[in-house]
Structure formats: structure tokens, C-alpha cells
Design a protein that fits this description.
The complex is a heterodimer of chains A (about 190) and B (about 100). Helix content of chain A is about 35%, strand content about 25%. By secondary structure, chain A is α/β, with parallel strands linked by helices. Chain A has one domain (about 5-185): 3-Layer(aba) Sandwich (Rossmann fold). Chain A is globular. The N and C termini of chain A lie far apart (about 35 Å). Chain B is of the alpha+beta class. Chain B has one domain. Chain B has 3 helices and 4 strands; from the N terminus they run ββββααα. Chain B has a 4-stranded antiparallel beta sheet, with helices on one face. The chains are: A alpha/beta (about 190), B alpha+beta (about 100). The interface of A and B includes residues 4, 79, 95, 96 and 101 of A.
């Protein structure tokens, strides 16, 4: 299966499940977000990117702690669910886009959240490279990885090879690893 | 889509910034419009207030071209003829 076929599959899957996504997954997603937020300090003037924003469960946690938040997702129908949440926040923007080809300037974001993203991407290393492109050198990057797909050593190696430095890692009582990272500067 | 988003948008393919914005319908936000990359001439629809900035391989001609045709009177000729990934070149050449 080509990388584009995999992406089309992801699109279809999330389009089909968009209306039941929160019922099925909100609890699990919120556990990951709250685990990450324990290690993330945000300042009000910052730019935040939520890559693979899904229905926008993260929005409530970041909109009052940032100047601008951008949420992007590969599923149009899931973005319509996110739009319902985004409506009440004037600093929230949504884009239908591919995480490997983000329509964003480089070096602009202070915080990036990639929650439940890399397990759905055909080449997670490429995705992380694109995440790095749009982040500032001193940015904080949150990445989660499903344990079933990424045993801890593999997950850590993936982040390290992508030039990310793990500053906090949580896995206990979660289905995934939650890593809070900074960029390794060469 | 809020106009402010244009400050940080770049073409997903060649990463060019700034992009050009055509607004077709605007209420509190831009409801329908077009974002154009002046470098590679790709165009991206704004529909239902959401900019659709997918790479060519994930776009659907049967969904995007009807939108393009609907607003063709407001789209510059260069984009109608040379725009990517889809355009109206063959259709426009048939005109007497």
C-alpha cells in the first residue's frame, strides 16, 4: 500500500467515525492530554499547533494560555466536529491539511501537540521532521505513541533520531507513551 | 476562516509565503474563498469556513472543480488556465 493510500485510508476512517469519535475515544484522549499538560508551561503570547487535532479535545486546555492556536487534521468531517468546539474561541484556527505537508511558515510555533498522530502516519520520521520545520528552536513538542505500535525503545529512538530531546516521559496507566520534547540544536 | 490566518499560511507544496486570498463570501469569518500560491499557481478552496490545503494526491477533482467553476468569474484568468492541480484550460480553449 502506498503512503498516499494509507493517508486516504486514514481520511476515510476518521470521516466515517467523526460523529462517534468522542463517545468512543474522548476519555482515552483526555488522559493523554492531561498527562502531557502536567509537564508543559505555556505563556499567553505563544503560537500553538495541534497537529491531528481530531474533534478538538485539546482546545479547552490551551486556548486561554496562548495567543493563537492552529488545529489541522486530514479528515474533513472530524474538522466539522472540531469547528463546533473552536467557535467559542476567537484565537482558534482550523485547516484541512496533511501533517507531512503542512501549509504553514517555518519556525513559528512555540508549542506543538502531536497527540495520536504518528501511529497513523506512513513515515513517522518524516512527520516529525515536518513538525520540527514549523517550530521555533526553543519550542516544546508533545508527541504520543501507541505502545502496541511503538515499544518504548523504538519510540525513544524515533524521537532521538528526529532530533528531539525528551524532557518528560509518561507511560504508566496509559495506552501510549506521552513525551514532552525540545529540539536538539546542532 | 479568519483573515489573520493568512499571516502564517504557506503553500503546502513549495512553502511559499505570503499567499493570495480571494474572498467570495464573508460573514463573521470567510465562508467561501480561494487561497492562491503565486509561485506554483496552486489554488486551495475555503469552504464552510475551513481552508482546504491538501497536497495534490489527496485532492478530488470531482469535488474541487465544481467549486472552481462556481466562482470562475472572480478568479484571475492565469489561475483558471494554468492553476494547479486542476484548471479549466481545455474548457476555455473551446470558447469561440
Amino acid at each position: 500500500m502506498s503512503k498516499w493510500d494509507k493517508k486516504r485510508d486514514a481520511m476515510r476512517h476518521y470521516d466515517l467515525t467523526a460523529h462517534i469519535y468522542d463517545t468512543q475515544y474522548a476519555e482515552e484522549q483526555i488522559e493523554k492530554i492531561e498527562a502531557a499538560m502536567e509537564s508543559v508551561n505555556m505563556e499567553k503570547h505563544g503560537l500553538v499547533l495541534d497537529v491531528g487535532c481530531g474533534t478538538g479535545l485539546l482546545f479547552n486546555y490551551v486556548t486561554n494560555k496562548a495567543k493563537t492556536i492552529v488545529g489541522l487534521d486530514i479528515s474533513r468531517k472530524i474538522l466539522f466536529q472540531a469547528k463546533k468546539r473552536a467557535k467559542k474561541f476567537p484565537n482558534m484556527h482550523l485547516i484541512w491539511a496533511d501533517a507531512d505537508n503542512m501549509p504553514l511558515k517555518e519556525n513559528i510555533f512555540d508549542h506543538v501537540f502531536a497527540v495520536t498522530l504518528i501511529q497513523n502516519m506512513p513515515d513517522p520520521a518524516k512527520t516529525l521532521s515536518e513538525v520540527k520545520r514549523v517550530t521555533k528552536n526553543n519550542a516544546v513538542i508533545v508527541v504520543t505513541g501507541l505502545k502496541k505500535k511503538f515499544p518504548l525503545e523504538i519510540f525513544e529512538g524515533l524521537l532521538r533520531n528526529a532530533g528531539l530531546n525528551i524532557i518528560a516521559l509518561k507511560s504508566e496507566n496509559l495506552k501510549c507513551h506521552v513525551a514532552v520534547c525540545t529540539k536538539l540544536l546542532h | 476562516m479568519k483573515r489573520k490566518l493568512m499571516e502564517i499560511l504557506a503553500c503546502p507544496i513549495d512553502k511559499h509565503h505570503p499567499l493570495e486570498l480571494l474572498v467570495f463570501e464573508e460573514k463573521e469569518e470567510i465562508v467561501e474563498g480561494l487561497i492562491i500560491c503565486p509561485k506554483c499557481l496552486r489554488w486551495y478552496p475555503i469552504r464552510d469556513e475551513i481552508p482546504e490545503m491538501l497536497p495534490d494526491e489527496l485532492r478530488k477533482e470531482n469535488e474541487d472543480l465544481p467549486f472552481f467553476k462556481k466562482w470562475k468569474e472572480k478568479i484571475p484568468d492565469e489561475i483558471l488556465v494554468e492553476g494547479k492541480p486542476f484548471n479549466l484550460k481545455s474548457e476555455m480553449q473551446k470558447k469561440p
